[in-house]
């Protein structure tokens, strides 16, 4: 009988109509029973969603249907111009991605640039420990431990992402063109700059003149990298991607972050340079580049606030990225105050006019202090907004781990060092120093929690897994499934703007 065979959609509609016409007959009861027991049929249509939401893979049957060509007839993700995600629905099963297993070599394929946020946060902790005004035995040693650990983790990240590009060469270009992963490429430059800052803090006074000169040269290299990567990543985004305001998150600020650490770098390095002219050049360049980074971030701030007014808060899994909005103000405060404090000691006698050097240096220091105090309020405002946005996440426990959790740490290290800088500008204000010390303790606790959660996430496959990291399918990209990954073999990269070939 036809009722005992799999039926097409048209056949099911006819059978369903017949069943409604004879609801009292035995055949209609058999039809209803057969329909209830019929296996689910995959629909080719998929919902379009926010490309920055996490992607979950549906059942193995649905994936099989996609591979056989059913999904190619619909609006499946991976099609050109589709900024939706639509691969799964939050809360549903893991599908084949949760049932299959991958070797470590295959998991390395999903080692993305976001792993450098770990080294950003670790170096930030070392920076905070160096800035604590209340020195005691062991504090310097603890800072050195984080500094050395940061260099080890940085070498680990460089090795792992190099292996990814070596085993899967096409993923290198894909990482620069992916709508989300490309935003985090500057994290490697920021990590490099943070290491240079730590070397200046913990090494120059001990090693002597040779390291002083080396770090002066490396400072200019850091400036060049920051400007090049910031401009380059934004140009790639503006040339290859199309975003809407509903997709906006503070992660859009991230390509400007390499510029934002130049000011703090200059403020820390200049006092350690023995030649006043070289120190002045470092401070002037620090003000220029810091100004670029902050003004670009400020313009993106407006888009973020507009997005919050029109689209509500981001999805729970994306809310840690809201702390990125704290960083621009925080780094700018630390940079301009530290540079301003050093200016009176390095300006020549006729700086900005005959006999005006001393006066110009003091006025510049005062202006820097007031500007820092002004921006400190802005940083605190964004901090409290970001904390409040996580209240519902904390009460409902609806956050899966992602490497963006290091946003709990790194931007707030900027706020902490900014707090210490404000206290310094106000002649060592004790209450503000106490607040900064409390923040430093909380940051260290947060770092250990996030680091532990990261290890747990690797074990339970929340990261380093298909569709779990920033190389996932979205915005016209199709990331291959486990079976496709194995079928294509080593050397196959992500598909850009094309359907997956079976």
TrEMBL record:
<keyword id="KW-0812">Transmembrane</keyword>
<feature type="region of interest" description="Disordered">
    <location>
        <begin position="1"/>
        <end position="101"/>
    </location>
</feature>
<dbReference type="InterPro" id="IPR004695">
    <property type="entry name" value="SLAC1/Mae1/Ssu1/TehA"/>
</dbReference>
<keyword id="KW-1133">Transmembrane helix</keyword>
<feature type="transmembrane region" description="Helical">
    <location>
        <begin position="321"/>
        <end position="340"/>
    </location>
</feature>
<feature type="compositionally biased region" description="Basic and acidic residues">
    <location>
        <begin position="472"/>
        <end position="490"/>
    </location>
</feature>
<feature type="compositionally biased region" description="Basic and acidic residues">
    <location>
        <begin position="10"/>
        <end position="20"/>
    </location>
</feature>
<feature type="transmembrane region" description="Helical">
    <location>
        <begin position="249"/>
        <end position="270"/>
    </location>
</feature>
<feature type="transmembrane region" description="Helical">
    <location>
        <begin position="282"/>
        <end position="309"/>
    </location>
</feature>
<dbReference type="InterPro" id="IPR030185">
    <property type="entry name" value="Mae1"/>
</dbReference>
<protein>
    <recommendedName>
        <fullName>C4-dicarboxylate/malic acid transporter</fullName>
    </recommendedName>
</protein>
<feature type="transmembrane region" description="Helical">
    <location>
        <begin position="405"/>
        <end position="426"/>
    </location>
</feature>
<feature type="transmembrane region" description="Helical">
    <location>
        <begin position="113"/>
        <end position="132"/>
    </location>
</feature>
<feature type="transmembrane region" description="Helical">
    <location>
        <begin position="373"/>
        <end position="393"/>
    </location>
</feature>
<feature type="transmembrane region" description="Helical">
    <location>
        <begin position="138"/>
        <end position="163"/>
    </location>
</feature>
<dbReference type="GO" id="GO:0015140">
    <property type="term" value="F:malate transmembrane transporter activity"/>
</dbReference>
<feature type="transmembrane region" description="Helical">
    <location>
        <begin position="183"/>
        <end position="204"/>
    </location>
</feature>
<feature type="transmembrane region" description="Helical">
    <location>
        <begin position="432"/>
        <end position="459"/>
    </location>
</feature>
<dbReference type="InterPro" id="IPR038665">
    <property type="entry name" value="Voltage-dep_anion_channel_sf"/>
</dbReference>
<dbReference type="GO" id="GO:0016020">
    <property type="term" value="C:membrane"/>
</dbReference>
<feature type="transmembrane region" description="Helical">
    <location>
        <begin position="216"/>
        <end position="237"/>
    </location>
</feature>
<feature type="region of interest" description="Disordered">
    <location>
        <begin position="472"/>
        <end position="502"/>
    </location>
</feature>
<feature type="compositionally biased region" description="Gly residues">
    <location>
        <begin position="76"/>
        <end position="90"/>
    </location>
</feature>
<dbReference type="Pfam" id="PF03595">
    <property type="entry name" value="SLAC1"/>
</dbReference>
<keyword id="KW-0472">Membrane</keyword>
